[in-house]
Amino acid sequence: MTGPAQTSGRARLVELVGQCSGREVWVVGDLMLDEYVQGVVERISPEAPVPVVRAAGLQYRLGGAANVARQVAVLGARVILGGVIGQDEAGDRLVADCERAGIDTRGVVRDSSRQTTRKLRVLGQGQQLVRVDWEDPIACDETAVAALRDRMLSGQRPEAIILSDYAKGVLTDECLAQLIQAGQERGCRVLVDPKRRDFSAYKNASMLTPNLGELSQAVGKRLDPDDLPAIGRAARTLIDASGLEGILVTLSERGMLFVGADGKFHHIPAVRREVADVTGAGDTVVGVLAAVLAAGATIEQAMEIANTAAGLAVAQVGAVAIAPAQLCSALADVVGGGKVLSRAELAARAADWRASGRKIVFTNGCFDLLHAGHLSLMREAAKFGDVLVLAINSDESVQRLKGAGRPIVSASHRAAMLAALESVDAVTIFDEDTPLETLRAVRPHVLVKGQDYGVSQVVGRELVESFGGRVELVPLLDRQSTSAIVERIRRGSRA
């Protein structure tokens, strides 16, 4: 079982994800439309030695800075997006998709002299076979950039600014300087996902988030991914030269390393998942990082959350946005492991279970002195669904219900023993006299109690039924209760 400090830490990470909601974040940079042709390869073309893909579908997704904006918006933040696109069909689709995602596109400028950047990927059996790009990788017309800048600067104070630089011509030197200055004047962090070799263009930004290859190019030498001190020294030279708060280096399967201007280093390993596609992983990192920093996270907390989100992103094909429930569920698994969860963690885990079609069964009690009656109750309860959740009364709650001298076993030890049972998927501790608030968080499909209750007596019945759930009563073993066991011990009698 995890200790109280670690449990508290996990709960705080989950809380921070929820606190992204309502934060105002600006995202400015190179906007792209990603297109995916999915199909199967069954033969080689007779015209050339290339595979023939029998197309089964075409998908469109937001890419580049638009993908960053989508990730931030999915976390519940208010996103103002800025960029330059063409007066073309791809631009129309990009704007429409942004607006459907809840992204404010007031900073998106249409320029008839440019084409909207498109990246077409063809996949066979889930593997990328070829990519075709349409783009104008030259500096944007200054009139268009000035219009973008003016639209962004006319908005209210953001809590974070993200500059997503794919070196396609939107973030010119002047545009970068003015947006970084705007962040300083408004007292918010400016995070840059850089693609330029010369990091001096990002002077006075708060933080850069390069991958190791980009950092290597910036310092002009290859950096060994296993030599963290050398990576840190290289980052420090750029931090000092450009007046940065720090640099967060993403290290692929080796995790990420933060190097601060104050000399602080912090490294966390990668979340181990099977990698399907790294497309958009950097977008996920900078988007999540900015949002949770705006919500009040420390650098270390923000790294844990962003690292977990990146692990989820690379396990899927194409650029994806990681939803809060999915992220919180993964945080509970990755950061702390185990089954003992806070209410916030359990709510996130339950949302993930429901989304995947799993039926949640819930039961509650003091579970003081684990005995055969408890095991019988759990065994019967588990038959009603796919996931069994136990909610147990805290020590203070047990004392109010049972009187002085109870509980005999502390809540942390009760939770640990219950979590060790194979039939149990999650355990949470509640302080109230009833489990109503926990039921609201979990929204179970089935609420199980013993047959010593009538259905009308079950606390939470009406609430569960309002969710579309039901109550089930199961038989209890005769004379199996903690109170009866305690009384026999006091009398010195045997079972």
Can you describe what's shown?
- It is a single chain.
- This protein has helices at 4-18, 65-74, 89-100, 142-153, 173-186, 212-219, 228-242, 281-294, 299-314, 324-336, 343-355, 372-382, 395-402, 411-419, 436-442, 461-466, 482-491, and strands at residues 24-29, 31-44, 51-64, 78-86, 104-111, 117-124, 127-134, 160-164, 189-193, 207-208, 246-250, 256-260, 265-268, 360-365, 387-393, 426-430, 446-450, 470-474.
- The protein has 495 residues and is α/β, with parallel strands linked by helices.
- It has two domains: 14-333, UDP-N-acetylmuramoyl-L-alanine:D-glutamate ligase (3-Layer(aba) Sandwich); 345-491, HUPs (Rossmann fold, 3-Layer(aba) Sandwich).
- The strands form three sheets. Strands 5-4-1-8-9-10-11-12-13 form a nine-stranded mixed beta sheet, sandwiched between helices.
- Helix 1 runs antiparallel to helix 10, helix 1 crosses helix 11 and helix 6 (212-219) packs across helix 7.
- The radius of gyration is 27 Å and the shape is elongated.
- Mean pLDDT is 87; it is low at 1-8.
Structure keywords:
18 strands, 2 domains, five-stranded parallel sheet, nine-stranded mixed sheet, 17 helices, UDP-N-acetylmuramoyl-L-alanine:D-glutamate ligase, about 500 residues, disordered N terminus
